[in-house]
Amino acid sequence: MDKSIIELKGLTKRYGNFTAVDSLDLSIRKGEIFGLLGPNGAGKSTTILMMLGLSEPTSGAVHVCGIDATVNPIEVKRQVGYLPDDVGFYEHLSGRENLLYTARLNRLSLHEASARVDRLLQRVGLQQAAGKKVGKYSRGMRQRLGLADVLVKNPQVIILDEPTLGIDPIGVREFLELIVALSREEQITVLLSSHHLHQVQQVCDRVGIFVAGKLLAEGNVRELSRTLFSANEPYIIEVGIDTETLDGKGAQLAAVRSALAGLSQVVSATIHGGILRVGSEADLRTEVARIVVDSGVGLTSLTMKEYGLDDIYTQYFEGGEAYEKIA
Amino acid sequence: MKKSHNAAGRLTTSAWAAKAGNTINGFFARLNHRHTHRAVHPFWVIVQKEISDHVRSWRFNVLLFLILLTCFGSLYTSITNLVDELAKSSKEDDPFFFLKLFTLSDGSLPPFHVFIGFLGPLLGIGLGFDAINSEHNSGTLSRIMAQPIHRDYLINAKFVAALAVIGVMFFALGLLVMGFGLFIIGIPPTAEEFLRIIFFLLLSVLYVAFWLNLAVFLSIRFRQAATSALTAIAIWLFFTIFYQLIVNMVARAMAPPDMASQEQLLGYQQFIVNLMRVVPSQLYNDATTTLLVPSVRSLGPLTMQQAYGAIPSPLPLGQSLLIVWPQLTGLIAATVVCFALSYVSFMRKEIRSR
Prior knowledge:
The complex is a heterodimer.
Chain A: E1 4-15, E2 18-29, E3 33-37, H1 44-51, E4 59-64, E5 67-68, H2 73-79, E6 80-83, H3 95-105, H4 110-123, H5 139-151, E7 157-161, H6 169-186, E8 189-194, H7 197-203, E9 206-211, E10 214-219, H8 221-229, E11 235-242, H9 251-262, E12 266-272, E13 275-280, H10 285-294, E14 298-305, H11 309-319, H12 322-326
Parallel strand pairs in A: 3-8, 3-9, 6-7, 7-8
Antiparallel strand pairs in A: 1-2, 1-4, 4-5, 9-10, 11-13, 11-14, 12-13
Helix pairs in contact in A: 3-4, 4-5, 5-6, 8-11
Chain B: H1 2-13, H2 15-37, H3 42-56, H4 58-89, H5 100-103, H6 112-128, H7 133-137, H8 140-145, H9 151-185, H10 191-221, H11 225-254, H12 262-276, H13 280-292, H14 304-307, H15 317-348
């Protein structure tokens, strides 16, 4: 389980003077869903192309499933399914025919291929449209067909390049759920590149942030926020207070505040407009809730604010000069 | 009626018929089983798909219709003229009467081989001009390249598929014309005539293959299918119309004086002919004329010494082939160069989605 299935070591790709990918080190474990995040032009697609052996690295090594992708791309492509962004199909053929073609390019016999294709079409919910020409498919249907197309070869790894681009929100949710389900069911490692932070946050086990050819940070979303914001308060708990239960002027609130100050991990506590904001070094949701309730103040809501990728993103772009290079 | 029923009934009940039927059924079942259960090499999968794409495309069918039309048009003119020709040549026994089917014309419509010389490039360009760039623009190229196949399979398969389509089409047309001719004039071709026609058809396929490769190369070079089609057509027009004009101008400028020696004149003639032979269509015309008109003895100027003592009879096939050998080599070389160019540029191309 802990074995890494994708290994990048010092991977570099230069186009003339421009460095698209700059000595990238990355290792992805078997069975996990890894999100590669970065703005447009950060070198995500180039990295993916090098993993598939479609583009040769200037220096460094790529190993996928233990195979060197630069030396033996055919073997790698046998194990890895790749869904390019804006996937294209032969429009004059039906969805089923398109998949059959892919299956037969993977050396399946017609008999095996049609059984597998029918199963996959069912899995991605396209069995009704199987005989329809792809030219008449909607964007979301194409994307699902693309996923089926990637799975035809029974891959160990699937690489999805901006898979949710241009699909409506419900479609995106369904698509991502499908990916997660498939990954869990069949133990497929998923590498997902995107610049949609929320979507990646929803599904990925781990995330790598990629800007101007460099991997700036790597880890799960919580770890990332901890490393980024640990200087102040990694955990922020916001408590909604029912102001009608307050008695005149502030005895209860003073009690709450002093009780909170008694907890060593609490860094700050402020009240503003009916919301108590507690900044702490650890997850203190239960303690905070108990204190508030014990003091007799009505509690309407309690949420722990986690830093989203949005925050991580802006933090990097504000702080780093890296972005200027590509802008 | 009843009798035939009986006979049919007896056929099905008799043991050997049933056995034969079973064997045949078994054979087809096995064939079918083999077809569905055997993993085909990916290269042939691509070839199959490309052929079916070509055959089903409007573009190919329009071109096919055009060529069929011209084919029957020229067949018609040659047959109507054959009657006069027959009357003329009845006294001296013409051993290559059947070949006239392909070459005879009264001037209203060019003969078959000239038509092919004219329409062949169009066919080649039509089948090749969007071979790679359309795949690139529709985003299928990166998807196909992510499959476990070598990159050159795609371009080789595209070439093989288009060539197969062209080959089948030309041979079908040629044999059809022969069949109709046989039917209408009632004189069978001799073995040599048949071979000459087969060589002519092979040559035509080769000629179209040249234009096909040129078009495929342009389809790799240019992102837009329209650009590559227009460029290919421009090259074709340049060679068919303007190049001859330019050669004529050069010829006039370089014309030797009236007092020039015979060697000078000969050298000049040779030079102009060689200039013309840079054009593939000239090579094709030279070669087809020699193959289809056996009385053609040389493609360059002949001196009196060379012509002196020659027996005025048609050449045998071997000799005709010997005469067109340089032309054939030239055409093959041009085709190979175009293919090599497209191969190299395709292998070097970085494939990104759209």
